[in-house]
Amino acid sequence: MEPSAHDRWIFAVTLGGQGWYAAAAAVLTGLLADRRVPPATAAHAAVTLASHRRQLGGHAAARPLDALGLRLASTALREGGSEPDVDGADARAARTDALVGLAADALGTGDVRGAARLLDVAEEVGRGHPSWRPGVRAGWVRAELALLRGVPAEAVEPAERAVAASRTAGSWRHEVKSRIVLAVARSAHSRSPRVARTAVVELDEMASKARKSGLLPLAWPADLAAADLLAQEPLANEWRRATVRQSSSDTTSGATRRRHSARATLSVIVARADPVGRRLVRESPWLPSPLPVV
Fold first, then answer.
1. In the CATH hierarchy, which fold is given to the domain comprising 1-131?
2. Is 224 exposed, middle or buried (0-12, 13-18, 19+ CB in 10 A)?
3. Angle at CA of residue 121, ends 33 and 8, nearest 5°
4. Cα angle at 111 between 105 and 113, to 5 degrees?
5. Sign (positive/negative) of CA torsion 141, 155, 284, 257?
6. Per-residue DSSP letter, 239
7. Strand ranges for the chain from DSSP E
8. How many CB atoms lie under 10 A from the CB of residue 86?
9. For residues 265 and 288, is the Cβ–Cβ distance under 8 A?
10. Contacts for 245-250: CB closer than 8 Å, 24+ residues apart
11. How many whole angstroms separate alpha carbon 244 and alpha carbon 30?
């Protein structure tokens, strides 16, 4: 029996979570081209493909896909849509996700004010929805927005909410990403060596667990965030020894080794991407380069 449109979308989400972007893109573009697919599911497919493009540094390329997802979700809602779904597969959740995606696209292209407006609308649309997923994603972008605006104190609370919600829901992938965001937010807010050390330990742990879980798209950002912390702080011998002693991933050579690990992981992901994804990585100002050849 042919899998349902919903099952195909979930399969693509799983593929993307493991960094198999080319395979995910094939499934998602197939859903978008299939007129039999319900508008709500097609909306989720467009938003998921946008997310994968954004994860490869393509914020501008993600924007029209998120806009398509918003149009499809709005169509589904006008046509009666679907009942609110606890797993976030309905039309209102898709509309919220599309708006959150557009906010993230705006952040990546430097439009901080536009991102704030879109995020406000997204949170209003998603208010009261039974699914935890849209709120977690909004929390990530809300924290990133606060960091880019230079008010890291405002990044901590949405990141904490995202950690709590994803942990309660039992979603390990969402929890790992939320804990990465929270570690960065706390270190930016405090700026104390002690908090920075704790953040590096947490980021190392998340990178290690992401790799063991096959969640490569989360491993390299954790590595880079830890490397950035190590590069920004004065690396006194005591601090360096404390970080090595506490680190659960046995990463002992500071920022350089973590950056190399991030590039190596990203090169594996690039090898799994389609031609569009590989081009976005090459052109992105957000991703490290050059990448090692695998």
1. 1.25.40
2. buried
3. 25
4. 115
5. negative
6. H
7. none
8. 13
9. no
10. 246/197, 246/201, 247/200, 247/201, 247/204, 248/201, 248/204, 248/205, 248/208, 249/204, 249/205, 249/207, 249/208
11. 47
Q: Which of 195, 289, 204, 183 is nearest to 253 (CA)?
A: 204
Taking the alpha carbons at both ends of the chain, their separation in whole angstroms is 38
Q: Which residues, including other chains, have CB under 8 Å from residue 91's CB and lie 6 or more apart?
A: 39, 40, 43, 73, 76, 77, 81, 82
293: its two tokens: 């050849």
d(CA 71, CA 98): 9
CB 136 within 8 A of CB 178: yes
pTM for this predicted structure:
0.91
pLDDT tens string 184-240 = 999 999 878 889 889 999 999 999 999 999 999 999 999 999 999 988 755 444 445
Residue reference for tokens 């949170």: 123
User: Of 57, 159, 151, which Cα lies nearest the Cα of 108?
Assistant: 57
Amino acid at 19: G
Mean pLDDT, consecutive 10-residue segments, the chain of 294 residues?
93 98 98 96 98 97 98 92 83 97 96 97 95 96 96 97 97 97 95 88 97 97 94 55 51 78 95 96 80 44
